[in-house]
């Protein structure tokens, strides 16, 4: 009689475990279904966003064409390129003016900058190279 009660208890526990296993498998299937639905919803949202962005771009391009302007992005790029070109021209003019001042007027203000940057031997080589170009030779043109 005790053995029968134990066997009945084991059978009940076995059925409960089988019911739990079945419930867990069903839960797993339900979770997979929910995850698939969430993925589908995310893909739909991403698709709608992409369509919205492409539609916005098309509307902006049509607005630019209607206003007789270049397409989107070109005007900003042109302004940036123009600004960069002006800065380069300004820097080039500044360098050219400095070089002209040193070459034509007076190299003395810049002589103090060169020796700390170069060695003494390099300074003497530089003077030997540039000396004839930085001095005004007028002996041949004087009448006396």
TrEMBL record:
Transmembrane parts of this sequence: 82-104
Keywords (A to Z) from UniProt: Coiled coil, Membrane, Transmembrane, Transmembrane helix
Main subcellular localisation: membrane
Record membrane topology: Single-pass membrane protein
Compartments it resides in: Membrane
Name this polypeptide is given: Single-pass membrane and coiled-coil domain-containing protein 2
Species of the source: Ceratotherium simum simum (Southern white rhinoceros)
Gene field: LOC106803867
